[in-house]
Recover the amino acids of this structure.
């Protein structure tokens, strides 16, 4: 990571980014040369002469294709000992398993840290994460490794999956007493923390900034976060499949596509680029992972393009998105009134080979329904584990139901809501 971080910082400071054309050409050429699934999509001559035109020869990559063709999508090159499995975030209720290499991890960590500098924060400055960490609920956040790691990184963690009044109060007390921090939060969880502080009249000293991610940042959320923490709020967009893809700079003119990470297309229902100012599906070509490259991958979110092409005052001449519009994450409410980020329930369902599609709905504080489209019978152990983890955060009296469906229809917006609170 240090090598990439230093290089990316230098390029960002000088506003001298690698050529988008060259990055795309290198990505496509490597995939055609080394990945069976992409071997006949375009010739090297086509790719090198006009990579953007060559990209159109590659089909839109759907999640189901990744599931069924995963082996053919793995590269024949590279050191496989450094490869690891990851899973998508399930933003459409259809998680997929991916193979990523060590270089991908190093690059994505470096890119994230470079983006953090856009807020005015520097590596080693104190940070507060209002973040998802299911492991903390199971193993305890006071483990020795947890304490040492966070101390070294000057990082405090408030678990976004379980927002009790006591947990929120403890972190807000630290913000009142400690030095200013950069707050990095799941958008809806961060909003709930800010709302908690505002409703109780708590005065929080001005923080360095807020990065809101992992959910759609609505205008009312931005306003509350900014007023409570007394600072700018930066909208950041990413996915588990690709890492961080785009984010706002200090001028908030839209989201800059981070120049090292990917190329983004915004397409209409026919697969054609939307016109300026219009909204469509995000299709991403990742530049960071050679083990299992994702080319024209429909990530499951939607974005709106800028109405006009305008160079941002920050001087970063990058691809731009006006807004990411398609993520909705509901906060669930436990019997005792504590709040649980909806993404907790998507994490429960990660790495379930029998699962095709899902939706988790809370119809009352003591009732949750898992609507499932399955490939095979649910093992008894998995069934019991889902019930146990649900009751861990919502209370032992929570009734957990399972509905088996042939398909889960999308909402009126055209996107499947994978978690929702119905009361």
């Amino acid at each position: 990571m240090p090598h990439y971080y230093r290089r990316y910082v230098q390029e960002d400071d000088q506003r001298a980014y690698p050529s988008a054309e060259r990055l795309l050409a290198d990505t496509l050429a490597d995939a055609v040369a080394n990945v069976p699934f992409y071997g006949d999509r375009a010739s090297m001559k086509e790719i090198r002469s006009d990579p953007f035109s060559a990209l159109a020869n590659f089909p839109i990559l759907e999640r189901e294709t990744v599931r069924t063709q995963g082996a053919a999508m793995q590269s024949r090159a590279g050191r496989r000992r450094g490869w690891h499995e990851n899973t998508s975030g399930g933003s459409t209720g259809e998680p997929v398993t991916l193979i990523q290499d060590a270089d991908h991890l190093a690059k994505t960590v470096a890119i994230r840290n470079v983006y953090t500098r856009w807020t005015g924060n520097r590596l080693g400055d104190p940070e507060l994460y209002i973040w998802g960490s299911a492991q903390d609920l199971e193993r305890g956040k006071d483990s020795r490794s947890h304490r040492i790691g966070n101390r070294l990184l000057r990082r405090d963690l408030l678990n976004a999956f379980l927002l009790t009044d006591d947990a929120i109060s403890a972190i807000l007390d630290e913000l009142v007493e400690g030095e200013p921090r950069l707050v990095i939060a799941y958008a809806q969880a961060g909003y709930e923390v800010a709302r908690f502080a505002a409703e109780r009249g708590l005065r929080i000293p001005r923080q360095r900034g807020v990065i809101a991610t992992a959910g759609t940042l609505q205008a009312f959320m931005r306003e509350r976060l900014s007023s409570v923490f007394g600072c700018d709020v930066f909208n950041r967009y990413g996915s588990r499949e690709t890492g961080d893809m785009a984010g706002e700079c200090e001028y908030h003119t839209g989201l800059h596509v981070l120049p090292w990470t990917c190329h983004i297309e915004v397409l209409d229902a026919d697969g054609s680029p939307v016109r300026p100012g219009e909204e469509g599906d995000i299709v991403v070509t990742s530049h960071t992972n050679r083990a299992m490259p994702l080319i024209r991958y429909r990530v499951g979110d939607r974005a709106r393009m800028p109405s006009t092409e305008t160079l941002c005052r920050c001087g970063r001449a990058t691809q731009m998105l006006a807004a990411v519009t398609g993520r909705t994450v509901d906060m669930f409410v436990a019997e005792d009134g504590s709040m649980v980020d909806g993404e907790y329930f998507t994490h429960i369902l990660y790495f379930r080979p029998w699962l095709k599609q899902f939706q988790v709905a809370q119809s009352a504080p003591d009732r949750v329904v898992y609507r499932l489209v399955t490939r095979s019978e649910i093992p008894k152990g998995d069934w019991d584990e889902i019930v146990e983890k649900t009751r861990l955060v919502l209370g032992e009296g929570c009734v957990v139901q399972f509905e088996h469906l042939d398909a889960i229809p999308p909402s009126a917006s055209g996107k499947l809501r994978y978690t929702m609170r119905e009361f």
User: Anything to note?
Assistant: The first strand starts at residue 84 and ends at 87. The CA atoms of residues 184 and 211 lie 5 Å apart. DSSP finds 13 helices and 20 strands in the chain. The mean pLDDT is 86.
